[in-house]
Specification:
With 608 residues, the chain is α+β, with helices and mostly antiparallel strands. The protein has 20 helices and 23 strands. Helix 10 runs antiparallel to helix 20 and helix 15 crosses helix 17. The chain is elongated.
Length: 608
């Protein structure tokens, strides 16, 4: 009985042993097959992956070129920025890593994903910048959690830095991340998503000079991404430096003189067209854009009703007011419609049709010849000239002064302004030119629109004897070792349509505006240099003939003053525009006096 049980037991044991044997053989066979597959079939691929995990290729960004003032002071330089980046080949689950990073830093996950998705298609060994210019505390926090963030690395890159903050911000411009439209352009072929480029001003216009050629290095890293050894390196090629024509000292004076007022100031060299200062207010801090501005910061700027990003020197056009009367005077003289001693009587108003047009002086100026008409800015005198000239003769002369045309300064979005003609009026309103319009445009009102830069270039031409220069704001481009690569020279745009004799007379009129007891610009008078200039008050809203009611600030007139000095050998021309500043003589003229005085303090016997 026992032997039968033993025999049965042995058979069951033998059966189980056989099953176990086959299971072991089967599993071992699968393992062998898998090993064969990994080592023989996929061995080459895994060898490459292993090498990629050990070898990292990383770019070395070239520092951006410097922007310097005329004395060599750095207006735009560079500083180190620590960026949090992701190397796709070092993580199996990028989305999980992004979630962890967003949670650790308390930042918006969608923005991190947007950065990551926007870089798809790039080689997996190239890092993707997720967050730029982090603080040292954030940097330390990320590094302590490095094992929980596979693929996350910290890189140091040069970031744009403006040491004087808002100084000359509209001229310098600002930086921003390159967009898809720019990437599609041939001149941006060497750029990639995430790169920062100039978006306005000099940063934009000279982008290809200011951008160097990036280098790179190949390094060996360990399992957690730390560098063990540099295996090869290509140094970046330095960018070029751009030297401007402006003086930081005069620029600072101009901006301080504007203060909190909304407006602009331009100072130029009348003998060349060199920009000496270009101030627009309100200003903005370009440092806020250097590593990417936050959505909240961007909303604050674009929704600001005073438009701080606008360069009012070239991108805002205004009625020129009485500063335009010199153009009217020049046109009347050149067309021989009046002589210098031709008189008109001003009783305080001028009748045209069924409407009475007021002079700024309520009780009038009495008998007025051309010199007195300019010096005291008599509106009635120029109403008479406007009636005689009509729109087209006046527009022809104005075009010769450079109005209605861009100056060619080379900064984006420069406005051309507007000089109306009878044809323009017919096309715009569908009716013939109205006689009353001739009166308005003759004193710089109506449809006339000029930019501050246009106005100062026109007066600079008067100061130098009639040569209309193209303004320029860059003096030269130099290499990092100081070699001059390109220089910028004065360029003539045209000649004023005014005879030498008439030009001399008009300069004398402008001197009288500042230096005569009755001159409207006497607030700009200096004891040590003879200043010549013209005030202007540009009407924002029409006022009924019955009187001038109290107006809200936003409806006050714009205040103009444009001048040059010295009268007979001008070295500087300045225009001041204060939006809603009231009268040019009381608001803008003292500002111009400050700038002209500072110019001669700085220049002494030499050049700024």
């Amino acid at each position: 009985m026992r032997s039968e049980l033993d025999s049965l037991y042995d058979k069951k044991l033998q059966s189980r042993t056989s099953v176990a044997y086959f299971v072991v053989v089967f599993v071992f066979g699968i393992l062998c097959l898998r090993l064969w597959f990994l080592q023989i079939v996929e061995g080459n691929n895994y060898r490459k992956l292993s090498e990629n995990n050990r070898i990292r290729i990383q770019e070395i960004p070239a520092p951006r070129g410097l922007i310097l003032d005329s004395a060599g002071r750095v207006l735009a330089g560079n500083r180190p920025s620590f960026d949090i980046c992701l190397v796709p080949q070092h993580t199996y689950n990028p989305e999980d890593v992004l979630k962890r990073l967003a949670k650790l830093l308390g930042c918006d996950l969608s923005r991190l994903k947007q950065r990551f998705e926007g870089s798809r298609g790039r080689p997996p060994f190239e890092s993707i910048t997720l967050k730029s210019d982090v603080s040292r505390d954030t940097l330390a926090f990320v590094l302590t959690h490095r094992l929980d963030l596979p693929g996350i690395v910290v890189e140091s890159t040069p970031a744009r830095h403006y040491p004087f903050g808002t100084l000359a911000c509209h001229l310098l411009g600002h930086m921003g991340e390159i967009d898809p439209r720019e990437l599609a352009r041939p001149d941006f072929a060497l750029y990639k998503m995430g790169d920062f480029v100039g978006k306005s001003g000099v940063e934009r216009a000279f982008e290809l000079h200011l951008k160097g050629t990036d280098g790179g290095y190949q390094s060996e890293v360990n399992a957690v991404g730390y560098k063990i050894n540099i295996m090869g390196q290509v140094d970046p090629v330095p960018a070029h430096n751009v030297v401007l024509t402006i003086s930081a000292d005069l620029q600072k004076t101009a901006e301080e003189a504007l203060g909190n007022s909304v407006g602009s100031i331009v100072a130029v060299d009348p003998k060349s067209g060199r920009i000496l200062a270009m101030a627009s207010s309100p200003a903005f801090d370009p440092n806020a854009f250097s590593c990417g501005i936050s959505p909240q910061g961007w909303e604050e700027i674009v929704n600001n009703p005073e438009h701080p990003l606008m360069n009012r020197c070239i991108q805002s056009a205004y009625p020129p007011g009485s500063t335009y009367k010199l153009v009217t005077a020049a046109a009347a003289l050149e067309e021989e419609l009046v002589e210098k001693d031709t008189e008109f009587f001003c009783a305080g108003s001028f009748r045209c049709g069924n409407r009475s047009y007021r002079c700024w002086k309520k009780h009038g100026h009495g008998k007025v010849a051309l010199l007195k008409g300019v010096v005291e800015s008599c509106d009635v005198y120029f109403y008479n000239l406007g009636t005689m000239l009509g729109p087209d003769l006046l527009a022809k002369c104005a075009k010769g002064f450079g109005f209605g045309l861009t100056t060619g300064i080379g900064i984006r979005n420069e406005k051309a302004g507007l000089i109306p003609t009878s044809g323009w009026y017919q096309g715009r309103y569908g009716i013939p030119w109205q006689a009353g319009e001739s009166l308005s445009v003759a004193i710089g009102q109506g449809a006339n629109q000029v930019t501050p830069l246009q106005l100062v270039m026109a007066y600079a031409a008067i100061a130098n004897g009639g040569i209309l220069y193209r303004p320029f704001h860059v003096d030269r481009i130099v290499s990092v070792d100081g070699k001059i690569l390109k220089t910028f020279s004065p360029a003539v745009r045209g000649k004023l349509p005014v005879s030498k004799n008439n030009m001399s007379f008009l300069v004398g009129c402008l001197s009288g505006v500042v230096n005569s007891p009755a001159g409207t610009g006497r607030a700009a008078r200096l004891s040590n240099v003879e200043v010549a200039g013209k005030t202007g008050t540009a009407q924002v809203v029409g006022v009924a003939s019955g009187g001038v009611p109290p107006l809200a600030d936003r409806f006050l007139d714009h205040a103009w003053f444009v001048a040059f000095a010295p009268k007979d050998d001008a070295r500087v021309a300045v225009v001041v525009l204060v939006e809603h500043g009231g009268h040019g003589g009381s608001t803008a003229a003292p500002i111009a006096k400050t700038i002209i005085s500072r110019f001669f303090d700085i220049a002494g016997g030499g050049n700024v």
